[in-house]
Amino acid sequence: MKLAHLADLHLGFRQYDRQTPRGGNQRETDVADACRRAVDDLLEQRPDLILVAGDVFHSVRPTNPAILFLFQQLHRLRTGLPDTPVVMIAGQHDTPRSVETGTILRLYEALGVEVVVDQARRITFSKLDCSVLAVPHQALMQAERPAMRPQRGTTLNVLLVHGQLPGVGERRGTMEYGGAPLQLEDLAPAQWDYVAMGHYHVAHQVEPNAWYAGSIEYVAPNPWGQMDDEAEYGVQGKGYLLAHLPGARVEVRRVALARRHIDLPAIDGKGLTPRDLDERIAAQVAAAKPAIDEQIVRQLVFDVSRATARDLDHAAIRGYKARALHYQLDLRRPEAPRDEAAGPLARRQTLPETVRTFLEHRPLDADLDRAEFVRLGVDYVARVGGEAEP
């Protein structure tokens, strides 16, 4: 049996201010295009079963275009692959915080899609001699969790789950917050023919037969950390998984993306004048391959003083921003010297002082006024603290 494993579509995801000629958010369109290309490939590969492991939408209240788009793509699958079941579970982004609030995912049951949004449900496909235990995010957040073990009756047994394993994505902070915590022993991978997981946005094998499929586009605040994770795992890029059962032989199916994320070589700004730094930045931009036009670009510069940042050529920086879909000049302040004499009797910083220290070193676009940024942050914290005292 050939099983397609997708996850974390995040349809409706919006980022940056660039719009399409029709007035939509460009990144929302990029994500939809990636999903469309994944469906194109599914129609060519003709899997026997399609599993979607949660976070179908980016928001529990997705936009009307996102709702309609998914309806169209699922209709393509149901028409082009009429004998291929589709099972879809809700992830944390699809799950409302209030139990009285419904989820839009149930709409797609009208297309014959098996949708599981709250309680775990076992679904048997007799023609495939296969059963799927579908465990959505909400089922894992309850006090009494479902027992994630296969039952006799079919030759092939698959676990479909949306949750967070410890240690995965933690080193670079690339695992999303708020996922349902899981332990490997909860999953008992050795008892399943395949474990299809969602929530982590990088394709990653956690056991010989247990995988995170990863997202189909870069839809997290830290795409750069994701790219580092991908390089470490040797699975660069986005797409979905095609698992051949029994035996759990997994093939990563790449999906072409509309644009690249370009991380320009970092610059050490120590001792550089504003003109020197302008020249270094310009040289890195000019040498970028591909060119930065319509791409998503980051330029890291370390050890830059406030005065140097203020005197940079901001007209040139605005020009880079106009060329790229998004250009982030990430200026890092010099490390604050540590007080070697600090000991158990040293005065602890107040909360506003701690916030000030953090904001003064937080990465910030060069065209923002850091002094005003810091002042507002400290003022807000001090104001809330004053209100809380009584």
Task: Considering the chains and any ligands shown, give keywords for the structure.
Purple Acid Phosphatase, chain A, domain 2; 390 residues; 2 domains; 15 strands; six-stranded mixed beta sheet; 20% strand; alpha/beta; globular
Known CATH architecture of the largest domain = 4-Layer Sandwich
CATH superfamily of the largest domain: Metallo-dependent phosphatases
What is the CATH first-level class name of the largest domain?
A: Alpha Beta
State the strand order across the main sheet.
Answer: 4-3-2-1-11-12
How would you describe the shape? globular
Describe this structure as you would to a colleague:
The protein has 390 residues and is α/β, with parallel strands linked by helices. It folds into two domains: 2-254, Purple Acid Phosphatase, chain A, domain 2 (4-Layer Sandwich), CATH 3.60.21; 261-388, no CATH class. 29% of the residues lie in helices and 20% in strands. The chain has ten helices and 15 strands. The chain has helices at residues 26-45, 64-80, 137-140, 184-187, 223-233, 274-287, 306-310, 314-323, 351-361, 370-388; strands at 2-6, 49-52, 86-89, 114-116, 121-125, 130-135, 156-162, 194-198, 204-207, 210-212, 239-244, 249-254, 261-268, 296-302, 326-331. The strands form three sheets. The chain has a six-stranded mixed sheet with strand order 4-3-2-1-11-12, covered by helices on one side. The N and C termini lie far apart (65 Å). The model has no long low-confidence stretch (mean pLDDT 90).
